[in-house]
Structure formats: structure tokens, C-alpha cells
């Protein structure tokens, strides 16, 4: 029984991916981040290695500026006919980390017990992207970024993120399953083995499993409804010209 | 039965006609019955007015004039340079016989850059030797197409259309009021093609309804020579919340300068902020450049509710034929203009008989939707999945690293055909996409949790 329950915890399918995306897109629209003109000095991410120690092997010799000079920040651009690079906001310092070398993470510095500590790589990347989101950096041709998440092997992701969630969902499903089996037995007298043989019970079980996969939180109801609406919205806009047959004839 | 269908397409009910064509399953069955027969015009050809002389209008006028319809092409300012990216797909060169000397640059490399500056080279391995993305100046392309329409027989009228009188009966003419050299004139025509762009007046007169627009804002920057060398045949695409919340920012090379710009639908009031964001991101590469022009223009996001009413059809930007995700409009404008012109010629037997709204819908709208609706739908899906958040954009750039994805993208973009791919590679691509999306989403979630 537990084996079959364990098999009902596939990785989050595209169903659960998409609602989060659309949900996020509607969340982020009103929360426009004032990314450049915040007047409080940015605190560097709390990584002990990134103190005032000089950083080796960083090719771009730009000095770090812990207290950004923001008085020259102008709201609008300094006039359209000015030079393209005007003396505006000073860049708040590039992302620097001793383990970030040549546009990628130096995996040799992430060794733990002889093998790479992927969790630390993931954490470092999260911090880097968060820093860049708040302080967008100029791209440079000599120092291209080549690190992407596919460098981290799939089992590292699985172990860290999927398995705990799977354990949770399976545990909940098992508890509910046991309780429902007991309840049905006490109400109808049909034992567990006979329940599994009944078509109606099997259908209920299927619905319950699918429901648990798709709807993890209360918000998921609305997310799924919104997703369906959004998916068909563009199509409706295209078909609109065909819908108005009757209106145009009365014109 | 088949013979009678061929001889009198105007007399048979719509449902029988559709059997000839492959009706795609996503269209609901429609019932268009053509009840009246159309009178032959006595001793004159059909007259058509094409309002707007851009790629859509010129192609429509050329198709109409070559088909034998008396065509008038209205264009209020034939020499303005339109704000535009200026990229056309390769197939347009063949389909519209565009001479190669009009092309300013052959873009053979593209870079797509994620919010965390992950850079993916698009095209160095996956573009074939003879393939490139042509970049042209709009004024050059537009005037070439207009001249060609004129040599096909269309009359160019350089005036501003001010009013359109809608007739009450299905056979009386439309009256076009226009102003030329400060004098007001009128012109009576039987058919109208509205090709006057995103702020279409024709659409207003036929009450075609509104659409949401994105705004595209760009600055043309003249760079010093050594910086221009880098953009010799390279175009760049930047994604990120700092450059656009729901679209992308670009650096496109033009004849002797680059166009740096961005666009957005939902945050139009902050467009200057996003423009500053993109200039910051490319600061090192445009250092020392001078801004020579600033321009902005609305871009429609989806088609208008009504695209054909009476004997008026909308084409190009006026109809809203701009793809999502890439914002491509020139090819679809020219193609829709041509298809509409050809539809009118077909339905009227070369200008001999009057046509009706149903003819236009059947010959033009149906053909267009059948041909391109799936393309537009697919790009809408891509935009919704990949442009929603920084995490999704990171995933997009990761996915673009795959050579197969690049090859498929170029095949569909350059030739406007649904690329036939290898099944196994398709499956790998889909799984890879889902994997990238999931990984980047996890990273994104942790970024949220991280309080700096």
C-alpha cells in the first residue's frame, strides 16, 4: 500500500508550474520595484567572504562602493540630445564573490567531504541572482556569464526540493486514506479489500489523488480557473470578428 | 456538384464551400449564407481605396491593381521614417521580391541575455551559411513597395484622409473625404482597405473596436567606429524586470547606428525608466555614442474585435496583426495586405462584380486565420510562459542554449512555416524546457525568501 502511495507523488507537473507563473505575473505588476533610485545604501549580501578583502581573479578592475553616491541620480534622463552615457547613478558595485570566477561558479571551491556541495552552489546562485535583481549589472563582452542551472545535476535538485515535498504530500495522503477507509468501513461494512474491488470507490480514490496533486493550497482553485481563462483569452480575441455576425447585419 | 461550386462560388452556401478547404478543428463551424447575387458593374471596374501607404497598404494596392481593380492609395506623408526595429524574415525577400541592395545589414548573430547576464549566442552554430535576418530602413522599404504599387497601376494620392461616409445600401459607394494641399476633396469608391496603422482612422469609422497596445520606445545612437564593429551583424535581446516587465529590450544595428529600445504593455508610464535600464545594461558597449533620435510608437497586442465590416477590411497594424513575444509586424502587414487585395480580386472576378462583407470574410479573413492563427497562438503561449517573471526569463535563456531550439526557432521565424522537427528531439526539448522552468522557479522562490 505504501509503495503504491509513494508512486503517486510525481514531480510537480506542468500544472503546478504554470499557475505559479501566472499568479506571479499578476502579483508583480503592481509591485514595481524601484530598482535604481532607492536612497538607502544597499547592504551587501551576508556572505562573510565578501568583506573588504581584495578579490582575486576578477578581471574587471572596478572598485567596490559600499555607500553609493546617489545625489546625482536624476529622475528623468538628462535630455534626449545628451550623450548616451551621462554622469548619472554610480553603479553600486559589481557582484563579487571569491568563488565566482570567469563568469561561473568555481566548483572546486564548493568541495565538502571530497565531492561538490551542490546545496551550497544553489544557495550561492540564489544570492547572486537576488543581488543582480536589485542591482542590475552592465553586461560586458570580456566577462560573459556562462553559469546556468543545468550545470547542477538533476538529483541534487530532487534531493533538496522534491523529496521533502513528496514526503509531506504522501504522509498527508496516507493519513487521509487510512481515515477514509475506516470511515467507509464503519458506515457501509465494506472492508478495505472489498472497497478496492468496487468501481465507485476506485473512482473516488482516483479523484482524490488527482485533487491532491493539483490543489495543494486554497489559492490553487483560483489559479487553475484563472489559468484556463487566460489560455483561452487570446483565442477569444481572434474569434471576436466572427462572433459579431448578427450585430453587423443590423448596422 | 463540384462543377457548380467552381462556376458560381458566390451562389453556394458557405457550409458547402468549406468542404473544399481543410477546416482546422479549432474553428467553430460558421454559417455564412450568401443570399443575394451580385450585380455586374455596368461598363466600369470596381474602385478600391487603400488608406495608408506602408507595407500593408502598398502590398494591398499592388495586388488590387494587378488584379484589374481601379486602386487609389492614400498616404499622408510618404517620406517619414517610421520608428521600427526594421527586421524582416528571410522569406519576405522572396515572396515580395525585395532587391538585396535595400538591405542595410545581414544579421547573422543574435545574443539573448538574461536578468543575471547569462548570455546565449543564438545563431553562430544554428544558422546556415545563406541564412540571415535582413535589417532595413523602413523609409527605404516603404517607398520601394509604394513605387512598385504605382507601377502596377495604383494611383498614389499624398493626402490625409479626414472622413469616411458609410453608405446605407450594399451597392452605393463609400465616400472618402481627404485633404490635399489645403483643399478638401472627395472620392467615391466601392471597397476600402484600412492599412493606416495602430491609430487607424478607418477602424474608428467602421467602429471596429479597440485593442490594447504595447508601447515601443527606442533611441537611435550613433556609436564610435570600434564600438560599431561589435554590432556589425549582431543583434541583442535583453530580458529582465529592469528593462521591461512584460517584453524585451533590444539593440539592433541599423545602417550606421544602433537602435536601443524597449517596450511594455502594462507599465507604459515607466517606459523612460526601462529605457534607462537597458542603457545601463549596455553601458560599456555604447560608451561614447550620441543619441541622434528618440522615437516611440504603439504596437497592437491582439486583433481588433471587428476586422471586416461592410466592404471595408482592415489589414496590418490596423487589424492588429502583430505577434506577441517577438513583436513582429512588417511581414504580417505586407502579407495581410496582399491576401486581402487578392481576396477582393478573386471575389469580384477581377473587378467585374460587386462584392459583399461575406465574400471578404470568406476569402480574406478565413484564409488568414487558417494560415496564421496557430503561429500567433503559439507566440502568445510563449509570451505568457516566459515573459512573466525573472525566473521564467532565466529559464527562457537557458532553453535557448540548445542548438535544436535555435534551429527550430530560425526555421519558423525565417520561413514562417511550422518547422517539422525530429520527434525525439522535440520530446527532449519539451522535457528540457520543463526542467529549466522548474529549476529556475525553485531558484526564484528562494530568491523571494531571501531577505537582503
Automatic annotation (TrEMBL), chain A:
The answer to whether UniProt assigns keyword Kinase to this entry is: no
Arranged from A to Z, the UniProt key words for this protein are: Membrane, Transmembrane, Transmembrane helix
Indicate where this protein resides in the cell.
Membrane
Q: Tell me, in one coarse class, where this protein mainly resides.
A: membrane
Its record classes its membrane topology as: Multi-pass membrane protein
Classify the source by domain of life: Eukaryota
Taken from the UniProt entry, a GO cellular component term is:
membrane
Region Disordered, as annotated, extends over 48-87
Show the stretches that span the lipid bilayer.
none
Question: What name goes with this protein?
Answer: Light-harvesting complex-like protein 3 isotype 2, chloroplastic
**What is the protein's species of origin?**
Durio zibethinus (Durian)
UniProtKB/TrEMBL annotation, chain B:
* Enzyme Commission designation: 1.3.1.83
All copies of domain Digeranylgeranylglycerophospholipid reductase catalytic, residue ranges = 227-292
Instruction: Tell me one GO biological process term.
Output: photosynthesis
A single GO CC term for this protein reads: chloroplast thylakoid membrane
- Give the UniProt keywords, A-Z: Chlorophyll biosynthesis, NADP, Oxidoreductase, Photosynthesis
* The keyword Cell inner membrane belongs to this UniProt entry's keyword annotation: no
Coiled coil where?
A: none
User: Which Pfam family is an annotated match for this chain, by its short name?
Assistant: GGR_cat
**Pathway(s):** Cofactor biosynthesis; tocopherol biosynthesis; Porphyrin-containing compound metabolism; chlorophyll biosynthesis
Whether NADP counts among this entry's keywords is yes
MF term (GO), any: geranylgeranyl reductase activity
Write down the chemical reaction(s) this protein catalyses.
phytyl diphosphate + 3 NADP(+) = geranylgeranyl diphosphate + 3 NADPH + 3 H(+)
Q: What is this protein called?
A: Geranylgeranyl diphosphate reductase, chloroplastic
- Organism of origin is Durio zibethinus (Durian)
